[in-house]
Amino acid sequence: xxxxxxxxxxxxxxxxxxxxLARAGEQEHIGASAISKRFAQxxxxxxxxxxxxxxxxxxxxxxxxILLEHARAMLASADRVTRDMAAYRHGIKGQVxxxxxxxxxxxxxxxxIASFLQAPEHAQIRVDIEEMTSSVLVRAIREGLAPVGIxxxxxxxxxxKALPYRHDHLVVVAHPExxxxxxxxxxxxxxxxxxxxxxxxxxAVHTMFARAAAIVGHPLHYRAVVSTFDAALRCVRAxxxxxxxxxxxxxxFALGNSLRVIALTDPWxxxxxxxxxxxxxxxxxxARLLVGHLSSVQERA
Length: 301
Prior knowledge:
single chain, alpha/beta, Arc Repressor Mutant, subunit A, D-Maltodextrin-Binding Protein, domain 2, 3 domains, 8-stranded mixed beta sheet, two-stranded antiparallel ribbon, 22% strand
């Protein structure tokens, strides 16, 4: 197969998103006949039809859906190359892309990266952070889409190098009028008698809670599912249920909103985070410096 042309791939993605070749051409400023020629050549390259043509537009075939996923990844990588080289022209001599779970970003990772960048010897290093769920993050690190990831160490890190980072403690947050509000400690099983506010099913904490509920044979009822810990705590403040969140996030919010923080007695309530990467040989000098800094933060914590 000849090298795929990025302009054609960009047109292909636009056509899939708009479900219309003419609109894709307008977006990329290319005429309809030129688009048709490019797509014919692309189908010849991949040896498969990529579109089903209908009266109102086009729909990607099964082969087209596969190519669409790869095309988006290739275009994202090309865009990162453009941004990275632009940063180099403006004096940045090293750049590290870090994939991180919601918990690590919400807690201490931004401050730890900021302390790394404040060192004079790191003045020409740029660090970019992107939030991902732990499972997606680990797959991206394995595939080389980013050099460094920060996630819960219970994730499947097989095949990757992992160093300890920080840890946190899961607690129950309740409205002052909730039946659990008078408790100082409780088990997760005891919370299952009440409605919860939780994060989406794609997150590691959702999976962990579902597993813990299944072990004790009690269903877990969600009254609200939200995308951030902050939103979960606001739901608790409104009296919509209880939430199990990291103490490090809960305490500042609870103090200002008169919510109750109840310690969880389950052993898994203390979570550890890991710095993961493929191996040191795949780390740039800037990435090695950042990994060293983050691992040393754990030692001081």
